[in-house]
What does this fold into?
Amino acid sequence: MTEPANNSEDWSLHAYADGEIAGQECRALDERLATDPEARAKVEAWRRQKSWLKEAFDPALDETVPPQIKAALRHRRGFSFSPAAIAAALALLLIGGAAGWFGSQQMNPPKAMEFADLAIEAHEIYSRESRHAVEVAANDSEHLTTWLSKRVGQKLVIPDLSARGYSFMGGRLLAAGDQPAAQFMYEDQAKRRITIFLTANAGGRESKFLVVEKQGVTACYWLDGPLGFVIAGETSRDDIVSLAHLVYQSFES
It folds into this structure.
């Protein structure tokens, strides 16, 4: 998790995200977030992180106190198993184990969300271009797939989405954090565009289809063997999931 900058503005936003600000200050921040997409994105990200951590670790609070903690605490003179002491012990256990839990997961929820965010941002940037929407055009698709497959480190194919009215425009090389990624772009007769974002899936873990909507863009993302996928566009949830199934079938075949 990224540490917040050490200034009063970010701490105010953190307090706002945690529901610790009320009254006039809260109303002022409501007005600011309505016109400041960068600050709004920070608040939304912190709230998502809090939700993921709560979902991951809250069940442990109902578990029996581990024997090793009981044994360690019994050595303390005058110790009693008060609710506060037990809660503190469990908190220390959870904090100590959190880094290991997140480190053991490939594309855990926060990382998967960052992956989808990168694809959405790339879609918003390049789908609005007229002359430079793609780096390599569709008429040179053989070179495009060879080049991007080599850079991503996995064999890529160009899904055929013509049955849904989308024509392939071309693609480009992008980045997903510190690793290469590929973007394929399509357009329908109404000039609506969708993009497919692909990158290597370290560890080969798999996931179900997940859908997120952000600033008018709907994205479906999933992991399948050696690759991670995001398909994004200004379209409905049902439409993007239907297109995602076509993309999935293209790589399965």
User: Anything to note?
Assistant: The longest helix spans residues 83-104. The longest strand covers residues 167-176.
